[in-house]
């Protein structure tokens, strides 16, 4: 089974959704037959490389709300993250452009360490408050994931792998992705948002049993299930 996951490194629900999916996958009898591929999606392609606002200020200006209300929203998201063992330090997060991080991930996938690097970049941003657009930071994270620091530094000095990032984003538009995280199972079934672990478990079982179903992209989100996701206009928070 192949699972493609469109996400962005500064999307709070992408990290939460990733962890919820992983928890469901751990209990899946056929987990060794599941291949996960992370796809690039930029929530804000025009984001500054060097942040000049706090994440609260960024959210407030982006969504047209007060900074205090933005803090309350972020606190709510932080509680959801904590439920799956993640620590979000919103007060010190450095919102930034993620294009180079996506390029490095594309290289990491060619070296079979995409999964490891994805986790390290998410943690660096949400927990460790690192600037994930900084090339030295990306080189260090990539090295920790098992890549050659020199190779990554050389890559970042060019535009290598930019075409692969753009290809993912174009594909997202073609299949109608309007928010992330967005999961596609076997190129047939779609699940949007940071669904509960139980939903992912149900989808894994269903897809495994119905692999011979007609190749039409179908939504498997239960009608009564709450979901949290991020779009270009911001993140929807459901408690």
General description of the model:
There is one protein chain. This protein is 46% helix and 12% strand. The protein is α/β, with parallel strands linked by helices and 239 residues long.
Any chance you could write out the topology, listing elements then pairs?
Elements: E1 2-7, H1 12-26, E2 35-40, H2 55-63, H3 67-83, H4 99-110, H5 114-126, H6 135-144, H7 149-156, H8 162-174, E3 182-185, E4 189-192, H9 197-209, E5 218-219, E6 229-231, E7 234-236
Parallel strand pairs: 1-2, 4-5
Antiparallel strand pairs: 1-3, 3-4, 6-7
Helix pairs in contact: 1-9, 2-3, 4-5, 5-6, 6-7
Short description:
With 239 residues, the chain is an alpha/beta fold. It is built from 9 helices and 7 strands; from the N terminus they run E-H-E-H-H-H-H-H-H-H-E-E-H-E-E-E. It has helices at 12-26, 55-63, 67-83, 99-110, 114-126, 135-144, 149-156, 162-174, 197-209; strands at residues 2-7, 35-40, 182-185, 189-192, 218-219, 229-231, 234-236.
Question: What are its keywords?
Answer:
239 residues, Glutaredoxin, single chain, 9 helices, two-stranded antiparallel ribbon, 12% strand, alpha/beta, five-stranded mixed sheet, 7 strands
Alpha-beta classification? alpha/beta
Low-confidence stretches: none
Number of helices: 9
The major sheet is characterized as: 5 strands, mixed
Q: For the terminal residues, how far apart are their CA atoms?
A: 31 Å
The total beta strand count reads 7
The CATH superfamily turns out to be Glutaredoxin
**Sheet with most strands: strand arrangement:** 2-1-3-4-5
Q: Would you identify the CATH architecture?
A: 3-Layer(aba) Sandwich
Give the helix proportion (percent range).
40-55%
Provide the CATH topology: Glutaredoxin
Shape verdict = globular
Q: At the first level of CATH, what is the class?
A: Alpha Beta
User: What count of structural domains?
Assistant: 1
Assess the beta-strand content as a share of residues: 5-15%
Radius of gyration: 17 Å
State mean pLDDT (0 to 100 scale).
Answer: 93
The arrangement of helices and strands along the chain is EHEHHHHHHHEEHEEE
**What oligomeric assembly is this protein in?**
single chain
């Amino acid at each position: 089974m192949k699972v493609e996951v469109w996400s962005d490194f500064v999307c709070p629900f992408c990290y939460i959704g990733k962890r919820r999916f992983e928890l469901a996958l751990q209990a899946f009898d056929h987990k060794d037959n599941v291949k996960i591929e992370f796809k690039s999606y930029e929530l804000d392609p025009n984001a500054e490389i060097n942040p000049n606002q706090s994440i609260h200020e960024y959210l407030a200006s982006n969504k047209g709300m007060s900074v205090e209300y933005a803090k309350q929203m972020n606190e709510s998201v932080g509680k959801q993250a904590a439920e799956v063992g993640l620590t979000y330090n919103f007060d010190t997060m450095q919102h930034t452009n993620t294009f180079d991080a996506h390029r490095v991930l594309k290289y990491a996938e060619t070296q079979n360490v995409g999964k490891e690097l994805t986790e390290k970049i998410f943690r660096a941003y949400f927990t460790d408050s690192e600037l994930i657009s900084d090339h030295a930071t990306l080189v260090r994270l990539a090295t920790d994931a098992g890549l050659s620091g020199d190779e990554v530094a050389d890559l970042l000095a060019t535009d290598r792998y930019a075409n692969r990032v753009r290809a993912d984003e174009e594909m997202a538009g073609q299949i109608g992705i309007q928010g992330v995280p967005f999961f596609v199972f076997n190129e047939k079934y779609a699940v949007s948002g940071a669904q509960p672990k139980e939903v992912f478990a149900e989808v894994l079982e269903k897809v495994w049993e119905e692999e011979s179903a007609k190749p039409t992209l179908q939504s498997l989100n239960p009608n009564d299930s709450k979901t949290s996701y991020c779009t270009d206009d911001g993140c929807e928070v459901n408690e």
